[in-house]
Structures are given as C-alpha cells and as structure tokens.
Amino acid sequence: MPELFITEYGVSLGKKSERLVVKEKGQVVEEVPFRDITQITIASSGVSISADVIRECVECGVQINFLTSTGKPYARLTAPSLTGTVITRREQILAYRDGRGLYLSKCFVEGKLKNQANLIKYFAKYRRNTDTVLYEDLQAVCRHLENALQELEEIKGDNIDEARPQIFSVEGRAALQYWGAVALLLRGHVEFTGREHRGAADPVNAALNYGYGILYGQIWGAVMLAGLEPFAGFLHTDRPGKPSLVLDLTEEFRPAVVDRAIVSFFTRGGTIAMEDEKLSQESRREIARRVLERLDGEENYDGKKHKVRTIIQMQSRRLASYLRGEGKYRPFLTGW
Known about the structure:
With 336 residues, the protein is α/β, with parallel strands linked by helices. 51% of the residues lie in helices and 15% in strands.
C-alpha cells in the first residue's frame, strides 16, 4: 500500500505503536504499518488526524496531501529537512535566464505531445479492425501531433521568455487536435464537447481535473525529494502560490497517467455521478482508484520496467541532475 487515499467524511487517523489506524464512526477499518506507506492523501472534509500521526509520518518520510472535492491540492505536510541540496536550487534559479530553461520547456512539451500521440495510437490499435473510419481519423490526429513536434523543434531563443508564446501556440493547436480525438473515442459512451479546466461541471472534465489533482500531489512530492523548488518553473510563468515547476513536469505525465485512466474508464462503460455540479463521493473514490492503479502500472524507463510512480521520482532526480550539469534531461515517453 504505497498510498492511502481517504475520501470518506468523518474518518479519523490515529497511531498505535508503529501502525496507522484508520477509523470510521469509531470503528477500526484498517491498520497499516507506517513503513509500508509512502503518501497519505486526504480528499474529504471532516477528516481528523492526530499530531502523533503527523510526527510519525514526518519521521518515516510519509507525505500527507490535502485535496478539495474537485481534486485541487490545497495543502501538503512534509518534513522541513526535505529541501535537498542548495546547489540544485541555485542552478534551478539561474537556469531560467539561460538556454537550460528553454531546453527544459521544449522537453516538457515534447514529452506531452509524444505521449498524447502514443495514447491515441494505443486506443487506435484496438479499433483497427473493428472501426476503420475511427482508426483513420485517429491516425490523422497523430500526424497533426507529429507536425506540431516539428514546429516545436524549430523554435529558437536565448531564454524561455523569448520563446514561450511560440511554444504555447504549438501546444494549444496540438491540444485542439488531441481533445478532438478524445471526443471521437468517447462518442457513444459519454458526452464530451471539449476540454475545460477548473470548475467544469460535466463528468469527463470533472474526472480529468480530479485525476490531475492526484497527479500533482505525486509530482510535487517527487520534486521536493529531488531537492528542487516547486514554485520556480520554466514553461509556466511565475505567480504567487503557483507551483510552476510541478505544472511543468506534470505535462509529460498527464496523457500517460490520467488521460489514459479516464478515457479507458468511460470507453469500458464506466459512469460518473454528479452532485451539485461536482463529482459524487463514490465517483471521486472510483476515479482515485483508477488513477492510483495507473500509477502502479509499469512502463519502460532506461531499459527496464518500473512503476509509473517510481518513474516520476526518477524523472525528478534526472531534472535535478541536469540542472547541476551532471547529465542530460530527456522527457519520459510511454509505450503504446
């Protein structure tokens, strides 16, 4: 059990010896050794957690995340000692003004576009013999994404500020094609007219936004463990309270983790219940289960199979190494 996900109202978390004790309505429903947990995510109101649990989590390196009912992270508890090396953060700040920031920004978008294409190819291969029209339409989208990659490669500049408008232009036009392909895949299963961000009240966008919130939590933790500053990004602009580097690194993992989990859920007949234009508690629990399963799925990385959640940690360390001048950064690419 690498991650404990709490979605029930009224749950209490306590400590007994070296175990985390989860209670509902005063009854013990789960006891887990702290050493078997890597993260606790609390995604419900009315949850209580004892100071003993917080201290034990800090000492065992267990991160505690808090999400709103729409999946937006609003708090994180970690040990103050998890700040990594000073050199990494110094180089991260300096990289914004030189070619490293531009290089990394292009890598993040390159990874996103390639993984979007790979996800479309993944779904297309199962429809090659059953729906040739849809298969050809999906192949056409993949060609658009490949053209976008060529445009991205040709973008030049001395730093990210000079090139950001061009990068976002390429990424935005590719997104229209990609989400159009997702709409084709979901046709006949659930209504989806296009991508909307925070506040979306339709089932697909609400599920995607909730899944991205879970992914942010994973990447935020990995970024901090790698000694990086989560608020000092490159592709995403600076803004108080905006974890720009977390958003940057999330780009290459969105299609492989959340999009794949959500599209598979709906195309296999899954349904979502909405309450007051938000996901119902049962739907939040189901989406969390699907995304966490995907994080525990395996992908190739450096020639070996690893869990996706492990790859997120390795990719964060690779980013830190690149900034320190100790290695090359390459985007994570999923298989299809």
